[in-house]
Design brief:
7-stranded antiparallel sheet; flat; alpha+beta
C-alpha cells in the first residue's frame, strides 16, 4: 500500500525529536493525492509546523483497522483553495504491523466448554475473539485453567444461531478488563470455523468500504476535490499568511515560548523582574553620583 492509499479519517501519529526531547503530534487523514497524503494542519501558537527531517509515522488505517508504521520522506505545510493542510510524502511501501499474525475477529458470545474430556462437568465461558490459529476465552471466577489443558468449546452465533464446536489447547493465562482469560490454539480447523471467519471478514471490510467522503466542498464530488487540490499543489504555494515553525532534532527547542517571535506579551512576573532590575540600576547610578561628590 502507498501512503496516498490511506483511508480518509484515519488516525495519524507523528513522532519527532526537538532538542533531544521526543514529541508526538496527532492529526487525521483527509484524502490521498498523487504527491502523498493530505492531512489536517498541525499548528503551534498559530505557526504551521515544518518538519526538516524524516519522521516516524504511525497510521491506524480506517479501511482495514490495521496499524502501519513508516518513515516519511517529507511533511510540509501546503496551501490550497480550501485552506491550509499538511502533506505527508513517503517513498517506501507501507506494510501492516504484525502482518504475519492471523487476523482476529471479536465474537463476544456466551459458550460452554469441557475440560480435558470431562463432558459431565461443563463450564461457562465467553468467546472473546477468534482467528484461524486460536481464540481467547473469558472464564468464570471459579474456573481455573493452565497451559496444556484441552478444551472443547461450544457456542452459537449468527442469525440462525448455528452451533460451533472447536477443540483447543490452552497456551497462556492473562486478564481482560480484570477478568480471568486464556489464550488457546486451535487443533481442528473445520469447515464451520472457516465459514465463520469468512463471514466476519466480509462484515468488517464491507462496513469499512462505506467510509464517508471528505467534503471540503459539498457541491462537487471527492474526485473533483482531489483534482482541485492537486492543481493547487502543482502551483507549489507554501503558506504565507502564517509563519512556519521549523522542527528539527538539532539546536534549541523551537516550541519554547521564548523562541516564538509572535509571542510579545511578557508575563507579570517578568515585568516585575525587569522593573526591579531597572530600579537597582538607578540606585547604583545614584550611589556613584554621591561618591563623586
Amino acid at each position: 500500500m502507498n501512503v496516498n492509499d490511506i483511508a480518509n479519517g484515519s488516525e495519524i501519529k507523528i513522532y519527532a525529536a526537538i532538542g533531544g526531547h521526543s514529541i508526538v503530534l496527532m492529526t487525521e487523514a483527509i484524502f490521498g493525492v498523487s504527491a502523498g497524503l493530505l492531512v489536517k494542519p498541525m499548528e503551534y501558537f498559530g505557526k504551521y509546523m515544518q518538519f526538516l527531517e524524516p519522521s516516524q509515522v504511525q497510521v491506524l488505517n480506517k479501511r482495514d483497522g490495521r496499524i502501519y508504521r513508516f518513515m516519511s520522506t517529507t511533511i510540509t505545510p501546503v496551501k490550497t483553495r480550501y485552506g491550509y493542510f499538511h502533506l505527508i510524502r513517503a517513498s517506501s511501501k507501507l506494510e501492516p504491523e504484525n502482518s504475519r499474525k492471523a487476523e482476529r475477529f471479536y465474537i463476544e458470545k456466551l459458550g460452554l466448554m469441557s475440560i480435558n474430556g470431562n463432558n459431565l462437568d461443563l463450564k461457562n465461558c465467553l468467546v472473546h475473539d477468534i482467528s484461524l490459529r486460536g481464540l481467547s476465552l473469558v472464564l468464570d471466577k471459579n474456573t481455573s485453567l493452565k497451559p496444556g489443558d484441552h478444551l472443547n468449546v461450544m457456542f452459537r452465533h449468527g442469525a440462525t444461531l448455528h452451533n460451533y464446536e472447536i477443540s483447543t489447547v490452552v497456551v497462556r493465562n492473562f486478564e481482560i478488563q480484570g477478568k480471568k482469560a486464556v489464550g488457546c490454539s486451535i487443533s481442528n480447523l473445520n469447515v464451520d470455523l472457516i465459514g465463520l471467519l469468512s463471514e466476519k471478514r466480509n462484515e468488517k471490510y464491507s462496513a469499512s468500504a462505506e467510509l464517508p467522503e471528505i467534503n471540503l466542498n459539498p457541491e462537487i464530488s471527492q474526485a473533483q476535490q482531489i483534482q482541485e487540490v492537486e492543481e493547487d499543489l502543482a502551483k507549489d504555494i507554501s503558506p504565507s499568511e502564517k509563519k512556519s515553525l521549523n522542527i528539527t532534532s538539532n539546536g534549541t527547542n523551537p516550541l519554547d515560548p521564548a523562541n516564538l517571535e509572535h509571542i510579545t506579551d511578557k508575563s507579570l512576573r517578568q515585568k516585575k523582574k525587569e522593573e526591579k532590575m531597572a530600579q537597582q540600576a538607578r540606585d547604583i547610578e545614584n550611589l556613584l553620583d554621591l561618591r563623586d561628590i
